[in-house]
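[stage:ingest] chain + small molecule (D-xylitol-5-phosphate)
[stage:ingest] validated
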Amino acid sequence: MPNSPIIIAPSILSADLGKLQEEVASIEGSADWLQIDVMDGHFVPNLSFGTSVIKGIKTSLPFDVHLMVSNPADRVDEFIDIGAKNITFHAEAVKESDTRQALIQKIKDGGATAGIALNPDTSLSEVDDVIDSIDLLLIMSVNPGFGGQEFIEDVLGKVKEAREKYPDLMIQMDGGVDDKTAPKCIEAGANNLVSGSFIFGSADRKAAIDSLRSQ
Ligand code: DX5
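[stage:predict] done
[stage:export] C-alpha cells:
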C-alpha cells in the first residue's frame, strides 16, 4: 500500500457535542471520513452515543463506526441502516473465530466494509483467523475509552509488523494522533489516521488535518 493517500478520520468524541452539526461542518472539505466512537460503558469505562444522536448529522463525510462495545453484533444493523461506510469491532470483544467471521460477513452484507481493532496489549497474531476477511485493521495507540490520552509508542512495532505482513491492507491508527505522532504512524505503515482532540482542539481544523497528512 506504499504511497496510497493517507485517510484522515476526525473522531467526534472530542467535538463539542452541543453543536455537533457545526463541528462536523468545520472539518468538511478537509477530512476524508468521520469517526463515530460508540462506547457502551462496559467494554470501555466510558459511555458515548448511538444512532439516535448520529443519524441527525447532515454530512457528505462517510461514517467510520468504531464499536467499543461488548456485543458488537447487536449494534451493526442500526449503523448499517444509517449508511455506515465502515464498521470496526474489537478482537477482544469477539474471541471465537466463527463468530468473528459471521460478524464480518453481516457487516459486508449490509454494504459496509469490515474492520477489526486491536488494543495496545493485543498481539497481531490474535487476528490471524480473520485477517484475510477484513477490509481494515485498527491498531489502537491508546487504551480505548477516552480522547486526549498519551500516544503509546510501543504499538508502532505492531504497525510495522502488520504492514510487512499485509502490504495491501488498510491499517488505521487511533489514539494520541497529532502532528508529532502522525509522521511516526505513517512511517510505520499506517495509511488511515483517527484524530480527535488534536483536530477539534485546533482553531484551524483544516490546517490541523492537513498537518497529519504530511509525511
Ligand atoms: C479512544 C477513541 C479515540 C479517541 C481519539 O477510545 O477510540 O478515537 O477519540 O482521540 P484522541 O485523538 O484525542 O486520542
